[in-house]
Amino acid sequence: MNKITGVTRRDIFDLFKKGITEDNWLITENIFYPYYGRFDVVGFLKRLYNLADWESRDSRVENAEEEIIMHTHNGDYSDDWIFEDERFQLLDGEDNILLNFLCEVFHPEVRDENGAWERYLERINTLLNEDGYEDGYEIVATSKLSGRDVFSWKIYRMKPAMYIPFSERNKTLIINKKISVKLPNAVRHQLFKVMNEYNEIFYLTDETNWNYYKSVSEFAFDDITKFYIPRHFVDNEYVEIKEFNDFIKGTTPFTVFDVIESFDRHTTKSSQFENEINAIFKLNNINVELRDGEIHSTSNKVIGFDDSTNINEAGLEELIRIAEDLYNKANYSYAVEKIWDAFERIKTYYYPTLDKKKSVEKIINDISYGNEHIKKMFDIEFKVLTDIGNSYRIRHHEKNKIDISNDLYYEYFYKRCLSLISILLKNI
Q1: Residue 307 included in any domain
Q2: Is the pLDDT at 423 greater than 80, yes or no?
Q3: Looking at the whole model, is its pTM more than 0.70?
Q4: Residue 302 located in a structural domain
């Protein structure tokens, strides 16, 4: 099911049609930014669609590319005609079609650095964030090209109204010593160096119209003191922390995690912040990662997806991310159910162009690269996993299947299925 409603889609289209209206002191300013950036309309569309392979709607020319060139040059097609043209599926197609389109709008080769693209990106993300049942989407920087951000989309997890620190959420596990992490001083200094770089200052107004400044570090301090008085060791004394930088030394690793999570909650550059924090964890072999604003263990994550894996299919990505979260929380049976749902969905990757059987055949051909032995192996693996899903009680509502009596078997099913999916997504 698509999350992006028709209302949101038209709101996004209106930004490109009508511009962004902003009040600038005594005047109202209308800011325009073309979706095709430094290209013309046809040049931009060719980056996303094989227009030369599409049929023309005009009998005078051979294909859609020639049709669009002719009618745009003649002025028959306005710049924004594509939003209503069903061939591009921007109004009523799958979510990922619109999301991929928007990512291309902000690609470094396309976007006009002198234009108002950043304001458009911010406004579009606001619309996408709010569209969804529990979460929406967001367009985030995931790599660099010539020093400029390249954007992809991901599921946007709405942050709860109240932040509950890592140490509070995991209090029982910490008390029972089920969580053990060491953060050497050198690692702490690296982490706090990143936080200081992202320590933005905001200009705010309170309910009495009093204007004041507040930094991300001050917000983090406030978040933590709602739950406990932070302390650290100084000269063998456990004393109350008065300043933000006091968190660096003499605190428990879990307190540092609290600070990192809260920092991520308030920075406007969450995606970049998470990437840099995780780079430090990985560099120092700390088996945790910051994901969607929360610290998670990676020690039991045998198989997963690296940052270069682009799923680019909204429903599939959501199933996989939910499965990963469930598995990391040791909820193995429901993790298996979700990963099997993802497996069934990936079988229809080329749908509706092909039926499920032919879609699977094409997937196997694509990843075999003409090697008949490899092709046979993947064919067998698809059939085995399908048989497991049909025979065992993978889905909780299916009472007439073979019951799975041990979490060990769920772990095996999960890892086997995810292993295949992870390979497929790197190749299709």
Answers
A1: no
A2: yes
A3: no
A4: no
